[in-house]
Structures are given as structure tokens and as C-alpha cells.
Amino acid sequence: MNGRNIDESGFISCDISISNVDLRFKPTLDIVIQRITEALGSLIHSIYLYGSVGRGTAVYGVSDLDLSVIVFKPLTERQKDSFQKLEVELCSELDAISKLEFDIGTFEESYIQNDFEWRFWLKHMCACVWGKDLRSTIKPYRPSINVGLEMNKDIEEWIDLRSNGLTRENYVAKGKSIAKKILRTHYSLYCQIDNSFYSDLYNIAQVLISFEPYQSACIKEALQVSQGKIDNFSHVTSLIEGYGETVSSLFFSIKTGTHTLSPTMKN
């Protein structure tokens, strides 16, 4: 693997592994997996770890714990409500993490239907921590704008202040997640041109600045928000409404074919 997260064959490397998990986080991970399996039982096909805990870069008491849960059939509304309550309960009980995030998908949509979304996600961004691992049967991917266009099609929902749940009470934690989403969405448009697939937000920011130096201040501010370093509600909302809207507009102009990116744009 080179420093751009690409292996010698040109495929994206996966830097997530259960062996990377810091010993201080393993009891927390075990508790969360146990509670998930108790709550959903035989409905679960498999559970996958992603994010900083799986990369071994998580900071105790600061970082999030991120899990993707594959289920055999869609959850009922009652099950969704119970799962959301479980998420809140666990986050308040566990000192090792600042936030707990679940992504839930069915086996049908994750393994059969979505080539550039769920299948890519499981193969390159996750490690199986419970159940039958689907990753071994999924082909590897190279950096592709198609992945970014599929995985980030929900960017408008993330930056919509009326529906994303951002409040004065949760804006630091919620703002971190939204800023990460904006930066990763923006970077996903350039990773194929840059022939890289960074997961580290600092490297992502550097690539973005190299292609769009005029956005340098916004990108750096988003990086600070993603790290929880900006403790100001108005700054966070302004960033989402400004930089977030800019990224969303660029994303959809590329998705609809009204705009293309050129390799010569890099500074």
C-alpha cells in the first residue's frame, strides 16, 4: 500500500481491522455488539466496524464509535424507535466514546442491489465484527467518482438545518458529523482525479485545498468543526449553509452532467 491508500494493483486499500482497535475501546465495542444482538436477535445478518476506532486512531472519550448493521429484513417503525433509544442509552453509559452511530441496511439492498454504495462500503470501509462476513465475496474497487456520487446522494439532507436535527444543545457533536460528511462528499468528487482514497480528514482537506485553493478558509474551518474545535453555534450553522451548500451544488451539477472536473484544475 502506498501513502494514498491505494495498493500496488491500483485498488483501494482498507485500513479498518479489529486488530487495530485500541484495548481501551474493546470493552465498549463488546458491550455495544452484545446490546445490538440482544435487541434485534435473529434479524441481524452481520455487524461491521468503521471509522477511527477501526483504524486505531480513536481518542478515548472524544471519538465516535461507528457501526454498520446488516439485517435480513427492514426494521419496523417500533424497532427503529427502540434502536434509536438504545443508541442514546449506550452513548450516555459509555465513557470511551462521545457519540455512537449506526448505519442499518438490509441484506438485499447492501449485498445485491447497491454496487457503488453498500458493496463498496463494506469492502473498503469496514471490518466484520459479528456474523457472516460479506466482504470476502465482494470485488475490490479503484478510486471512482461513481462511488462518491452514489454514497453521498443524501448530502442535501445532511445540510438542511430544518431536518438534520442540529440544535444549540447538540451542535458540537452533530456539527462534527455534518462537517465530516461535507468534507468527504467534496473529496469524493476528486479522489479519482487525484488517484487517492484517504480516510484521514487532514489529508482529505489538503487534497481539496490543492484543487480549490479559493475554498481554503472554508475547508480548514470544516476540518476544525469536524474535530469539535469550534464551540460556536452560529459559526457551525454558517459553515453548513455556506460551504455545505457550495459542495452540494457542485455535487449535483456533476451528478446531473452540467459540470465536469478537469485534472488540470489542481494547483
Q: End-to-end span in angstroms? A: 25 Å
Query: Whole-number radius of gyration?
Result: 18 Å
Strand-pairing-aware structural class? alpha+beta
Residue share in helices? 40-55%
- Mean pLDDT, to the nearest integer, reads 92
Global shape: globular
Which spans have pLDDT < 50 for at least 5 consecutive residues?
none
- Give the strand tally: 4
How many distinct helices?
12
- Biggest sheet, spatial arrangement of strands: 3-2-1-4
Residue share in β-strands? 5-15%
SSE ordering: HEHEHEHHEHHHHHHH
Major sheet: size, sense and barrel closure?
A: 4 strands, mixed
Describe the structure.
With 267 residues, the protein is of the alpha+beta class. Helix content is 50%, strand content 10%. The chain has helices at residues 26-40, 52-55, 77-93, 107-113, 115-125, 145-151, 155-159, 171-188, 191-194, 201-211, 216-226, 233-255; strands at residues 44-50, 64-71, 99-106, 127-131. A four-stranded mixed sheet has the order 3-2-1-4, with helices on both faces.
SSE inventory with pairings:
Elements: H1 26-40, E1 44-50, H2 52-55, E2 64-71, H3 77-93, E3 99-106, H4 107-113, H5 115-125, E4 127-131, H6 145-151, H7 155-159, H8 171-188, H9 191-194, H10 201-211, H11 216-226, H12 233-255
Parallel strand pairs: 2-3
Antiparallel strand pairs: 1-2, 1-4
Helix pairs in contact: 1-3, 4-5, 5-6, 8-10, 8-11, 8-12, 10-11, 11-12
Q: Gist?
A:
Helices cover 50% and strands 10% of the residues. With 267 residues, the chain is α+β, with helices and mostly antiparallel strands. This is Nucleotidyltransferase domain-containing protein.
